């Protein structure tokens, strides 16, 4: 099963993320977002760590808040995040630890800037037949 795919949109870009669990979908959505930003992130040398705890009213709002928080951390701390460990996840709360690499001229660079996560076509749902989860997110670039 693929983790995510990049979706083309009129003036923006997006992802469809997949997973066996809701936790896996949140992780794969984050991986997809950072692949758009910097390309391949699997081999980045980790020299950054942070903890995140967030709340929202529903699963879609939580996914929106999660990705926007990761984007905020990336922009304010000048890092590309590559590892996402979700410690706790419910329909309206998430606690996670994230790791990544500080941006420098030699290592990782920004390939495409994402301005924000949007609510446009945002969804997260479980396919009752297959039992698999899917999330769709459109980014303002």
Please provide a written account of the structure.
This protein is an alpha+beta fold and 141 residues long. The protein is built from 2 helices and 8 strands. It has helices at residues 22-38, 59-77; strands spanning 4-8, 13-19, 48-55, 79-89, 93-102, 116-117, 123-126, 133-140. The strands form 2 sheets. Strands 1, 2, 6, 7 and 8 form a 5-stranded antiparallel β-sheet that branches. A 3-stranded antiparallel β-sheet has the order 3-5-4, covered by helices on one side. Strand 1 (4-8) and strand 2 form a beta hairpin. Helix 1 packs parallel to helix 2. The longest helix has 19 residues, at 59-77. The model has no long low-confidence stretch (mean pLDDT 90).
Please state the second-level CATH architecture: 3-Layer(bab) Sandwich
The portion of residues assigned to helices is 25-40%
Helix and strand sequence: EEHEHEEEEE
- How does the major sheet shape up? 5 strands, antiparallel
Number of helices: 2
**What Rg is obtained from the alpha carbons, in whole angstroms?**
14 Å
Give the strand tally: 8
Report the CATH superfamily: Archease domain
What is the count of structural domains?
1
Low-confidence stretches: none
């Amino acid at each position: 099963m693929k983790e995510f795919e990049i979706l083309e949109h009129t003036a923006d870009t997006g992802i469809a993320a997949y997973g066996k669990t809701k936790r896996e979908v949140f992780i794969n959505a984050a991986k997809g977002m950072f692949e758009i930003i910097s390309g391949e992130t699997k081999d980045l040398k980790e020299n950054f760590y942070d903890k995140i705890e967030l709340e929202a009213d529903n699963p879609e709002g939580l996914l929106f808040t999660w990705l926007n928080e990761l984007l905020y951390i990336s922009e304010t701390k000048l890092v590309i995040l590559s590892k996402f460990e979700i410690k706790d996840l419910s329909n309206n709360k998430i606690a996670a630890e994230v790791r990544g690499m500080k941006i420098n001229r030699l290592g990782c660079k920004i390939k495409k800037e994402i301005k924000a996560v949007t609510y446009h076509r945002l969804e997260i749902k479980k396919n009752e037949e297959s039992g698999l989860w899917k999330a769709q997110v459109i980014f303002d670039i």
